From TrEMBL, chains A, B, C, D:
Species this chain originates from: Puniceibacterium sediminis
Domain of life: Bacteria
Active site residues per record: 149
Family recorded in the similarity comment: Belongs to the NAGSA dehydrogenase family. Type 1 subfamily.
Protein name (Swiss-Prot/TrEMBL): N-acetyl-gamma-glutamyl-phosphate reductase
Gene Ontology cellular component annotations, sorted alphabetically: cytoplasm
Entry keyword set: Amino-acid biosynthesis, Arginine biosynthesis, Cytoplasm, NADP, Oxidoreductase
Name of the coding gene: argC
Length: 342, 342, 342, 342
């Protein structure tokens, strides 16, 4: 059976990435594409790399006949997303890629995003979309909230360690190196090639990045007590990829064994042999996560490095993985693309 | 039916690209991988981005039991390739990605490559692998010679124009901008990141690039008289992509119409509306070719720009397309991957 | 004697490049910096790489006391530049980096820039700022018009050849590869790192780029009859550098000899030995031009490749070189910086 | 007075960088350049960006008449450096850029570099070349050992904090992002553009990088007891720049004040206002260091980010700064080049 799919927010990078993935999905058909600021244009105009695909032209989301749609991806900016989603049919399956439904507590949302939430009821309904850890809930959900790309990376590394109590919960540092597509297709000076190529910098230093809210929520729930990690993102001169260097205290071998056991049956998560370290080059354009553990020369300290592609496993690939579960499809359908190297 | 595939020369970029593509092919199984210098290693060691695939370890080509193999890709350097292929079973289908069987005349081979050809009989047997123009011969061939990546790019632009007699055959300039993966995984100073990033230069200026031999052979045969193009390659700070800016004399509209007609039914070749120009960004990681025609302000002159990914359509994608024909598979199987942008 | 310098338009790349160069000039002092949209900010805020310099804060140009200023650089966008310059003191020396005074004929200006010129009298007064060819006029000028960066590159290659009548004037092709800083610090989608890195494309194909107007004006004047070149710019994934591959008809050795003779005494222009080709890597961040000539295998055709740094020799370095002449300084003062490689 | 300078190891990046800097030095003349593997070549062949300079051709170091030389820079690989330096005149001033004389204890040298030291007496004589902290000793020294580039970066951040006892000495993490030129002009697969661009990875994880030996020696000496930092380098897709994100425990404001006080009079070290963070873009090609301090949301923790250009301040700029002191020149001569941005 072919599922009819709509994408709202199709003129951004995560929208384009969804289309790239769905184009090879055996049982999905893109029935409608919306981008209100570019309604009327063809996708070939907005994203010439999609030129060969037979795609519907862009419309406004209000023009879509949702009665035909089996599942809708919403790839809008936060705040806009909640305003649109609350107007959509209440029975339609939705995967939201924005930040709007990631935080369960309206106060947390307001703390990190600055405005009061405009769809508090739906916020309660939404399931957090970190597939490997919320699989059963996602399969039954109507509304799934895609995670932050940094939040996903950090959790793949840390959730089994927090849950397994093999690390000191008060001494966790996440030094993250993030490719520029994570900032979206937005026109900002620091995202220009001339400003970014050949250099790099930290930003949102000191625990102020919004994905911190997801870490607080998830790790504290897992541990049963408040957990605060130190998280510093860095902007990299590269288009795809997040690498998280994680400094933890605990037995390195136990940490590696915990991760290997946790992900032994996961199709997308590869834990490397102890002492090896991964590279973003080797997951580019794919839905895979590579994680490597090394012990420090200082006993009782380990460095865990994890990588993924922020647009795929960190966003649109995760979203499709969740949609597969919600529609009863094979979880990996459309997602087994091999990383594009070199 | 699943075809059993061998790849000789699996430790280079074109070998890795073949594996990337075949991994999504419905009817191919990689049965053997050879790389004599790295025999004994796993593919995860040589190319960590292939880690998740269940691939055979590398062996020497002499260790392969070819009686089990339906088709063998040979991704070796030129000269080595002819030496290996002449030892392989004479009944096995072979797609060669090297330069060894591209030129039909042994004297041409020696002129451009410097050594006498070591398998002259096979040189006669080989079919030139530019799929869209040798499709029927390829389907019946035992040995197919993959084209040069620059040679493919120039021919996609120029063959219909030469055949259609819509341009001046003595006034053709091909200014080509080539990504660095075309040079392979070889350790040369000018291929280092520190030497290449953030700058660019011409090389093999004056008609000395070896792919010139293919242009001479193919365009002269098409035109029925000697044709010499001017071809200047440039090394670009990018990993994938060739862009050919072609300067020709003729009626721009007729040129565009000729190309649009020639490629109307081709699944991988997109001729843009008159006046639009393509970008390598929009074919990256895919088997597609984009071509655009613009008229110059000087009447009777046109600029035709064509782009493709040198590793895919320029090499391994073309090879798989040919293998599909040789094995009776759908020509596009494993090749409909959407370009990876951004 | 120290000359007091003002820069209007100091928040763009050419403004910053002027400051970088002047900082090492023995006899210049930056007395005022204007950028109306960022007035009130410090240069450290706008360009942190200038943080260590003791520079005046940004003001509006109207706030500058020009009676103190010996020479003013104007690094504004075209059209704005003429509107500002016509209000400045009529006795002050000015080097304009915009396009506003490059074309001597008001009709030409309107043809290429779309609007009527707002300072026609000054347009007549302005001297075209290609230093090596207008040196004496520049030394006596009050208002000098900096050339386009592409226009400079093409003219360094072609002026001696046009003047020396060693090439066919009706068969000149300039295929130019331009780094992104030439587009300035403007917020456009195609200038984003995610859109530009790792790929390239032609633009303004067919003779529509505005620098074409300078080629028409200068080459026609030199030849004493209309000359039209074919000029195609390409946007490169690099921040600094223009490489022009020039296809001409003539005797390659004579072409090389003509260029070597023309530039034998020039401090910034290096003509390579016959058969060598230059690279943008080797002029990055400097005021040097490298030119190389190669003969094609087709007799009577030559390929001339020239490179420079668009921000330095193509813009701000040229401007400083002209200012040196206007102020009676050594022409090379502040300009002998060695290229920054790697 | 003009000092006559020799450079041994002039065909590598640090050699070229020395020449770039010395070219603008008022009182230095390059009298001899050696590179044994490329003896007989001109510098224009080895580094075309130096083509315009009037430089001696490359010779072997044995061919240099050292009686003419006032100071010799030695830019050889470690181990080779000690073997050459012990053969040089014992009265000549030498600045060594290798690792051979950085560690004072022969056992430490053997531990980190694997071989017994071949010039133990000179190892004792050598002064550690971190200019800002060994200024007086350097001025009197005959042999100065340039520091590791990572070692310099980490020490600029941490020395005042260790000495001032404002941080917990057992809880220091240095997460360092290093540009590729730090690996030199060596032909390794992971340094190829196709392997490195658009991605990044950690290496030498767990405290195994050789610059760790310098941290151990220097911080332990400063603290008067053993200090071990955790240090993880990462290879970046960029040519110049090191960024160190340093996680420390202590009062953030006190940490910032300590750094600002320590560097108040230093010409090359800029401590940013509290809460600002630096970028490698803004020191590229220069001798400057930028440091920024931010407090974490977790009380008592601070993140200190420091940046420098590994080839300049991290190596050749530092070497020239030391040579200036040794020769009685102004310490900043030849070193005030403004960073090259964009």
């Amino acid at each position: 059976m072919t599922h009819k799919i709509a994408i709202i927010g199709a003129s951004g990078y995560t929208g384009a990435e969804l289309i790239r993935l769905i184009a090879t999905h055996p049982n999905m058909e893109i029935a409608a594409l919306a981008a209100n600021s570019k309604a009327g244009q063809s996708m070939a105009q907005v994203f010439p790399h999609l030129r060969h695909l037979d795609l519907p032209d862009l419309v406004t989301w209000e023009q879509i006949d949702f009665s035909q749609i089996d599942l809708c991806f919403c790839a809008l900016p936060h705040k806009t997303s909640q305003e649109v989603i609350r107007e959509l049919p209440k029975t339609m399956k939705i995967v939201d890629l924005s930040a709007d439904f990631r935080l369960r507590d309206p106060a947390d949302y307001t703390k990190w995003y600055g405005n009061a939430h405009g769809a508090v009821e739906m916020q309660k309904e939404a399931v957090y979309g970190l597939t490997e850890f919320y699989r059963e809930d996602i399969a039954k959900a109507r509304l799934v909230a895609g995670t932050g790309c940094n939040a996903a990376t950090g959790q793949f590394i840390l959730r089994p360690l927090v849950a397994g109590a093999v690390i000191d919960l008060d001494e966790i540092i996440l030094d993250m190196k993030c490719a520029v597509s994570g900032a979206g297709r937005s026109l900002k000076e620091n995202l220009l090639h001339a400003e970014l190529s050949e250099g790099y910098n930290a930003y949102a230093v000191g625990g102020t990045h919004r994905h911190q809210g997801e870490f607080d929520q998830e790790f504290s729930a897992l541990a049963g007590r408040p957990v605060q990690v130190q998280f510093t993102p860095h902007l990299m001169p590269a288009n795809r990829g997040i690498l998280a260097t994680t400094y933890v205290k605990g037995d390195p071998q136990a940490i590696c064994a915990t991760l290997q056991k946790a992900y032994a049956d996961e199709p997308f998560i590869e834990v490397l042999p102890f002492g090896e370290t991964p590279s973003t080059h080797h997951v580019r354009g794919s839905n895979f996560v590579h994680i490597g553990v090394t012990g420090d020369r200082i006993p009782g300290r380990a460095t865990v490095v994890g990588v993924l592609d922020n647009l795929t496993k960190g966003s649109s690939g995760q979203a499709l993985q969740n949609a597969n579960l919600m529609l009863g499809e094979d979880e990996t359908a459309g997602l087994m693309l091999v990383p594009c190297f070199p």
